[in-house]
Specification:
GO molecular function, one term: calcium ion binding
CATH superfamily of the largest domain: Cadherins
Protein name: PCDA1 protein
Order of helices and strands: EEEEEEEEEEEHEEEEEEEEEEEEEE
Low-confidence stretches: none
Structural class: mainly beta
Strand content: 35-45%
Shape: rod-shaped
CATH topology of the largest domain: Immunoglobulin-like
Number of domains: 4
CATH architecture of the largest domain: Sandwich
Distance between the termini: 128 Å
Mean pLDDT: 92
Helix content: under 10%
Membrane topology: Single-pass type I membrane protein
GO cellular component, one term: plasma membrane
Number of strands: 25
Oligomer: single chain
InterPro entries: Cadherin-like_dom, Cadherin-like_sf, Cadherin_CS, Protocadherin/Cadherin-CA
Length: 354
Amino acid sequence: IAENSPTGSRFPLEGASDADIGANAQLSYTLSPSEHFSLDLQRSEEYRESLFLVLTKSLDRETIPVHRLVLTASDGGRPPLTGTVELVISVLDANDNTPQFNQSVYKVQLQESTEEGTLVARVNATDPDLGSNGEVTFSVSNTFPEKGLNVFHLNAKTGEIRLAGALDYEDIPSYEIQIEATDKGTPPLSGHCKVVVEVLDVNDNAPEVWVTSLSVPVSEDASVGTVVALLSVSDRDSGANGRVRCWVPSEHFSLDLQKSNERNLIPDLVLTKSLDRETIPVHRLVLTASDGGRPSLTGTMELVISVLDVNDNAPQFNQSVYNVVLPEDSLQRTLVARVNASDPDMGIYGEVIY
């Protein structure tokens, strides 16, 4: 009997026979106790009596695959005589069970440096039905974000999920994969689960330094404390991997970090010592930033600061006194001496007239 047979279904049984006559051959039937089956005996003067087994409660092969009942026939004699027969009822499977995952949510943590081909998770679903009704295949019904379709590969037969692409915590910190398990029954039934993959950060990003504002060239008479540049330093990693510090090795410039915090440095490049273009016309600064990862990663940037000249140098003669011997008969316009003065300033600041 199929397990999806509706209640009230009737199955004809072969009745008993009795060689006696009259009341001694008048038969009645009883069935051993069963919550699923009962008997129905139909008598007619015109036709031979008919005996039916009636289904009174829905069957479930997964609970009771075989029902064993005892059918007893009794005659009307005194004392009555009885005969028995065993009814062995095999329940035929129907596709009435959906595949069930052993977990509704699988949670996995992977470092973003995990190599492709690594086993991420193995999902498992069972179906108590028989044969093709209980054969389960797996498929991905949805991923969030969609990029996960190219990052993970699901084996339809084994339920193994392997890494098929590169992970990047800074790009996508977590994935949700919806898995569907489908049996091969007609019609097929499905169950669902979710795989949540948390990507763990590794220190794979060096700090970045860039200039948001730059005031160059800097006049050599600029006062100490002048802000020369506004900088920004950051690291895409998280936690200690993303905590940065920054410095610049220079006796003329330093970094003011008052507007900064450990996650986002916004230092000002400040003049800390008076400039002298005639001594150092161009300052080449190397800004260095490092993170708190192990091992630590470092980023650098070169900043070129030109010094703008001011007229801060007086002309200087190469001699303070020129001693000249001149014969008294020297003609007019005779060259007496050539004096020379120089000025280290630039342009018109350094042009000398006598």
